[in-house]
Amino acid sequence: MRETVYDKIFKPKTYTLSNGKEVKQRASRAPFILLIVLFVTVVSGEVTGVDLSMLRTRGHQFIVILTAMFPPNFNFMNNVWGPLFDTIQMSLLGSIAGALLAIPFALLSSSNIIRNRLLNGFFKLFLSILRTLPTLISALIATFIFGLGTMAGTVAIFLFTLSYIGKLMYEHIENVDMGAFEAHESMGLSKVEAFRYAIVPDVLPTYLSVSLYAFEGNIRFAAILGYVGAGGVGLLLDERLGWRDYPSVGMVLLILMLVVFVIERISEYFRMKLT
Amino acid sequence: MNKAVAQQLEKAPNRKVYLSTIAIILTALIIWSFMGVNITGFDQRGTQIATNIFSGLFSPDLEFLFDFTSGGGVPGLLFETIAIAFLGTVFGSFLAIPISFLMSPSIVSRPVAFVTRLVVIFIRTIPSLVYGLMFIRVTGPGPYAGVLTMSLTSIGMISRLYVDVIENLDRGVLEAMTSMGCTTYQKVRYGILPQLFSSFLSVTIYRYDMNLRDATILGLVGAGGIGAPLIFAMRSYRWSEVGSILIGLVVLILAVEIFSNKLRERLVNG
Amino acid sequence: MIEFKDVNKTYPNGVTALKNVNLTIDQGEFVAIIGLSGAGKSTLIRCINRMHEINEGTLTVNDVNVGKLSGKQIRSFRRKIGMIFQSFNLVTRTSVINNVLISSVPELSWWRKLVGLFPKEKKVEALEALDKVGILDKAYNRVDQLSGGQQQRVALARTIAQNPDIILADEPVASLDPVTAKVVMDDFKRINQETNMSILINIHHVELALEYADRVIGIRQGEVVYDGKSEDVSQDVLDQIYGSIDNVPKMDDPEEAEV
Ligand SMILES: Nc1ncnc2c1ncn2[C@@H]1O[C@H](COP(=O)(O)OP(=O)(O)OP(=O)(O)O)[C@@H](O)[C@H]1O
Ligand SMILES: [Mg+2]
């Protein structure tokens, strides 16, 4: 048993068996973890000014907007479709482009496919850094570069999808069993052919499933991109919330929910088939 | 060719129709989405801004980046963001515990599980910024509104992951304990809780990672964190300040990701 | 015919895996290669289809000097040699027949490779190969739904469909239970008798080796220490191949240390 600092402070229990052997049981870490969590919670509470009593006294304000959304303004429905389709189109295009470009990136990151540690490391780091950028912030930057509109949103979604799928795929590819690849080479297939028939069938179902999953999530992201001027329903939400036209906001949210729900069910159905 | 082989050849599953239908639908969707997004290259102004952002990244405002006084500099803002994400995750994960039990088909009846799931899906669909605005009415602008928003939005994902944990509980242990004549309390205390504790913790740490990323955007509606200063800096073209914030953000999130992966590895391996 | 002449093989890390190997194996022989772990059995058979390179000596297979081949020649040379592995090495997430069809890939046109389609006559050949090893009914199942023994027979069918002159098998039954192991060994024997393919098997199970093979080659620390009929293998011979108990590789042995 390896002794860690923790074991030095909280001594493990020692049992002596009848044959003289000693067995040590580590002290449980749960109380220690809880203590740390509690401490950090208190500090964070100070920093953010959390005041639970406020929830009691002013909590009803939260409901105020919510109730104002009902009944939704059904006349507003016709204004929703255009931006909604923009949102779907943005996430579809961004997802597909990102998923496609993720393939070369994942291959270049996989140490069992491209045997060059430097290159692998570079692309892995690139994908990690890209992943840290919140979509809304890359959308914001994109609006500065590409101007306001759907193009900026598409770019933001594209970048996120690239990093997300790229990372998951290189992790998968690096764990692929290379046995079949070896067998195919022993049968006289070239490296490219062996890759095509050994690695691709193994990775493809995961790739498709991950791409669908990314697309599902992207629709939800895309819905808020309008906030920074990157097109889609977010634009409407921003506008109507600014005007305090809550029944229209309710309508937008209702349609959004239904559309997201339907798309998720379809995507889930295909993902189930893939595994 | 003998008869058995001929028969087997006949039986080959034919997925051509199925696959080509999907291919056609997919192509149509791609064309449609191309029509919706007006592809604009970037004009001169865009190129100029892109170079500005890059030069900002390479010549960040160092004073701002290393200003450790509370509130003003990048470290202070990042700290506030960390705190928002942390509290949001803690509250969210506590709220997710009862909800996840209500969502598990092996604990409650199927209709109850289904309805709870539906409700959670709908809660999840409302964009976090909308919640942010709603909570600002309660608390006024500031990080507290951010905490409440994070708590609410993380329930959805956390409870879904908790459900997986609950559904995958090792029931063998429970059976073994029943056969030894353990009481229900003993079964829950020694058979279920130890299994749940570390898995739930692992899920929560994973979610913290994502919440940290999400917490950065709450600033857009005035709910605290580093998002607001970033936007101000961009809107007023102070690129070296933008560079400082982006660098701080990337370093922080990378560090937290590495740390949380290590932590979760330790949790899994005991 | 396979001919080793004074073959030496040293790995880049300095381990000498084959020392002065001289062997002649005629077409249609059924040979078992036995020896301790790390003796060089895998190395020996992997040199034959040039999965490994030899350093010294000459290795000729059917009048082809294996060391002289390059690029494309190696690939077309390998088409005539089948290989079976301990861990089956199949593509598990696809169907049985697709695995067998892979043996025909080098002959396909580029667009077929891209789309993943196979011509009908290749499908017939694949099904016939599956029929020969008795798992025709599993043709459209996914490989990961099959048992180990069935998977090894898929691998065997894949090799048969390649229609090779020689089959190299590296511990083909090591992960199978004793009964299934016999079934697979029976398949090898039958193929050997019906088609006159040469079969070289690395095997740890001495009884199986003696029962099925016509000829046994014993290897010890890279050297051939026995080469003769399986009937002539006595306890003395086995002691010579395997040594006494204290010769079993220690933990400081390079191969063991890697694990
Ligand atoms: N790729 C390699 N690189 C370096 N050394 C190797 C390599 N493969 C094998 N060796 C070494 O060559 C020697 C012979 O190995 P080989 O795999 O041929 O043994 P084996 O008889 O097949 O053993 P086993 O029964 O365990 O499969 C061993 O000492 C091993 O450590
Ligand atoms: Mg071996």
Automatic annotation (TrEMBL), chain A:
- Family annotation (CDD domains): TM_PBP2
Cellular component GO terms, alphabetical: plasma membrane
Q: Which Gene3D superfamilies match?
A: MetI-like
Q: How does it sit in the membrane?
A: Multi-pass membrane protein
Q: Which InterPro entries does the annotation name?
A: MetI-like (IPR000515), MetI-like_sf (IPR035906), PhnE/PtxC (IPR005769)
Domain ABC transmembrane type-1, first and last residues per copy: 84-267
Q: Sorted alphabetically, which keywords does the UniProt record give?
A: Cell membrane, Membrane, Transmembrane, Transmembrane helix, Transport
* UniProt protein name: Phosphonate transport system permease protein
Question: PROSITE patterns of this UniProt entry?
Answer: ABC_TM1
Location in the cell reads:
Cell membrane
Is the keyword Transmembrane helix in the record?
yes
Recorded GO molecular functions are:
ABC-type phosphonate transporter activity
The domain of life is: Bacteria
Q: Which PANTHER family match?
A: ABC TRANSPORT SYSTEM PERMEASE PROTEIN P69, PHOSPHONATES TRANSPORT SYSTEM PERMEASE PROTEIN
List the transmembrane segments: 30-50, 62-81, 93-114, 135-160, 221-237, 249-267
Hey, which family's this protein in? Belongs to the binding-protein-dependent transport system permease family.
UniProtKB/TrEMBL annotation, chain B:
Q: What keywords are annotated for this sequence in UniProt?
A: Membrane, Transmembrane, Transmembrane helix, Transport
For this entry, the protein name equals Phosphonate transport system permease protein
A Pfam family hit:
BPD_transp_1
PANTHER family recorded? ABC TRANSPORTER, PERMEASE PROTEIN CC0363, PUTATIVE-RELATED, PHOSPHONATES TRANSPORT SYSTEM PERMEASE PROTEIN
Q: Does the keyword Transport apply?
A: yes
Which SUPFAM superfamilies does the entry mention? MetI-like
Q: Where is the ABC transmembrane type-1 domain?
A: 78-260
Subcellular location, record wording? Cell envelope; Cell membrane; Membrane
The protein's topology relative to the membrane is: Multi-pass membrane protein
> Can you supply one Gene Ontology CC term for this chain's record?
plasma membrane
Stretches that traverse the bilayer: 17-35, 82-102, 114-136, 142-163, 215-233, 239-259
Q: Which CDD domains match?
A: TM_PBP2
User: What NCBIfam families does the entry give?
Assistant: PhnE
- Name the InterPro entries on file: MetI-like (IPR000515), MetI-like_sf (IPR035906), PhnE/PtxC (IPR005769)
Q: Write out the similarity annotation.
A: Belongs to the binding-protein-dependent transport system permease family.
- Which terms in the Gene Ontology molecular function aspect does this entry carry? ABC-type phosphonate transporter activity
UniProtKB/TrEMBL annotation, chain C:
Top-level taxonomic group: Bacteria
Record's keyword annotation contains Membrane: yes
Which CDD domains does the UniProt entry name for this protein?
ABC_PhnC_transporter
User: What's an example GO cellular component term for this entry?
Assistant: membrane
Which GO MF terms does the UniProt record name?
Answer: ABC-type phosphonate transporter activity; ATP binding; ATP hydrolysis activity
- Where the record annotates domain ABC transporter, the positions are 2-246
Q: Which stretch is the leader sequence?
A: none
UniProt keywords, alphabetically: ATP-binding, Cell membrane, Membrane, Nucleotide-binding, Phosphonate transport, Translocase, Transport
- Read off the Pfam families from this record: ABC_tran
The name of this protein is Phosphonate transport system ATP-binding protein
